[in-house]
Amino acid sequence: MKTQLQIIEELNEIFTEVIDEGEVSLTPETTANDVDGWDSLNHIQIIYAVEKKYGFKFTLPEIQNLKNIGDLVNLIIEKSR
Amino acid sequence: MNFNSLKKNLKKEFSPKHQLKMAILGDTATQFLSTAIVGYAVEEAIKLDVYEAPYNQIALQFKNPMSDLHGFKPNYILIFEAETKLKDDFYKTPTEEKNSFAKQKIETVKEYSSIAKQLGATILYFNFCEVNDGVYGNYAAQYPESFIYQCRELNFELSKLASETTGFYLVDLLSQQNKYGINFIKDNQLLIQADMYFTLDFLPLIAKNVIDIIKVRLGDLKKCLILDLDNTTWGGIIGDDGINNIQIGGLGIGKAFTKLQYWAKELKNRGIILCVASKNTESIALEPFQQHQEMVLKEDDISVFMANWDNKVTNIQKIQEILNIGFDSMVFLDDNPFEREMVKQNLPLVTVPDLPENPAEYLDYVNSLNLFEAANVTQLDNKRTVQYKEEANRVKAKTYFDNEDAFLQSLAMTCKVEAISPFSLPRIAQLSLRSNQFNLRTIRFDEESLSNYSNNPNHKVISFSLKDKYGDYGLIAALFLEKRAEELFIENWIMSCRVLKRGMEKFTLNYLVEFAKSLGCSKIGGQYLATPKNALVKEHYKDLGFLANQADDSYWSLDIANYQPFEVQIQTTI
């Protein structure tokens, strides 16, 4: 079972790769407003990359309910069970 | 190639070989599609300047002459209409009109096409994925008022339209659906979330299709397929197993190789030159081609047969010398990874697919690479094998003569010179798309742009067709001329490399001088514009006695008052 911290590390890599504007450093409280380049198009790519990485698909309602990185991490942990 | 790396290409600095303007119009959001296409173009050193129309404005952009589309003056207009939107339109259509839905839609597409023509742009139009909407079940396939029936009719009408219309090309999305399935292509979640149609995984594949079409129109196309023999063209090793035991047709896994041979034969009929490069004793390697009943490919199908114990690199170089085509227009198929690697390292321009280990997968794999994209096909194409065989005979004959002139004389060459005609137009257009090396200014004409060009009274387009005692070369050279007062300017001079070293350039100039005089011109001007491929003609004008312009030495000029015609071994015929 991965810890919150491990998953955030992995998300940092995904965000950095997709946004491609330098190192991204996330915390559970981070929202889209806090990260330069985290726009709606990059968001789509990020969700794609997360799905690929962890081997599951999010449903539309799941994505809609995400408010910050903490929510995303918890959802990943929940769906990995 | 994944989507993110295509996206990163957008930030890349590169020196473009070509620069083009493309308008992208869609009835879904096209940002990702546009990113993928521009990014894929970078892979091919093409710089695409894109105008992306606001979402769902296709008709508006076309019909309003003040629209951004009209102002942008694109070379290409890419139109992607999604099957899902088509379905929405279909559902809104009154019941009594549903069975003519496809016909009405095609009329709209025709309108787009004629407006694009006025803009001087080429249309790239996606055909439609075919998805049964489940309203009539299987019965929909035979019920004209169902969506799937109309969608299929529309796809077929689009193919017909494209076959009859110059400057209109289909991006064959439907064939991709047949290969990968709708679930790989379409992203239902994205459709709801962002009104985007394609999955990120599929975007690089469709971007490749789009760029493949453009590449061919830029003259970048494959002309030749070189086959290894043992375990590529047939199963087993002819030298060890003998003619009765190689696997082809009914024997063993022979069917896998038969499939590949049928495909190669279709390519040959289309005008792709087939050659063989094999480590074998020639007489043994030839035996199956001559005697094996189940061989699809026969000796006559192969233009250059290289079976010996030299390495493949040497043999491919020899094939290149005989055919006189670029290495980048060659595809080499070989089952042996070592041989492939050697060719890749020494002849990096040759395309060398990494064949799967399993022969049953050969053909599908090679097909998935879409190596033999075509912009048009003329009757001339299927004569090409014969022509290259004739060339191989000429090369042999040449060794019997000590002096070049005696050899040329022995060829008994005759050349037909003609002004452009409806008959020659597609052939000239094809030559202009295909020739890279002997091409002074690399101006490409498709049929439509050539027709426009030649309709200008100041423009003259002249073609040259050559024959000799070994055979008919067909149309092998063309001049694109513009009368500029006293000067007759050569906008472009192109020639097939198959007729190099026969005095054809001199013959052409002799004719051109007479022609210029008949127009009342006193000099002939020309220009050499260097490309990575046309170094062959760098000294062309100098060799023919032109003088370089002092201000700009890419320009050349010939005073024709004192011109002494070159001696040539070519007779003019009518």
Intertermini distance of chain B = 54 Å
CATH topology of chain A: Non-ribosomal Peptide Synthetase Peptidyl Carrier Protein, Chain A
Strands of chain B, total number? 17
Got a strand count of chain A?
A: 0
Largest sheet of chain A: none
**Count of DSSP-assigned helices of chain B:** 23
Overall structural class of chain B, as computed from helix and strand content, comes to: alpha/beta
Biggest interface, chains and residue tallies = A-B, 12 and 14 residues
CATH C-level class of the largest domain in chain B: Alpha Beta
Structure description:
The complex is a heterodimer of chains A (81) and B (574). Chain A has helices at 4-19, 40-54, 60-64, 69-80. Chain A is an all-alpha fold and 81 residues long. Chain A is built from four helices and no strands. Chain A has a single domain (4-80), classed as ACP-like (Non-ribosomal Peptide Synthetase Peptidyl Carrier Protein, Chain A, Orthogonal Bundle), CATH 1.10.1200. In chain B, the strands form three sheets. In chain B, strands 15-16-14-13-12-11-10-17 form an eight-stranded mixed beta sheet, sandwiched between helices. In chain B, helix 2 links the parallel strand 1 (18-26) and strand 2. Chain B has three domains: 3-217, Rossmann fold (3-Layer(aba) Sandwich); 224-368, HAD superfamily/HAD-like (Rossmann fold, 3-Layer(aba) Sandwich), CATH 3.40.50.1000; 405-573, Aminopeptidase, CATH 3.40.630.30. The longest helix of chain B has 19 residues, at 101-119. Chain B is globular. Chain B has 23 helices and 17 strands. Chain B is of the alpha/beta class and 574 residues long. The A-B interface holds A 17-18, 20, 40-41, 44-45, 48-49, 57, 60, 63 and B 3-4, 7-8, 11, 31-32, 189-190, 192-194, 196, 200.
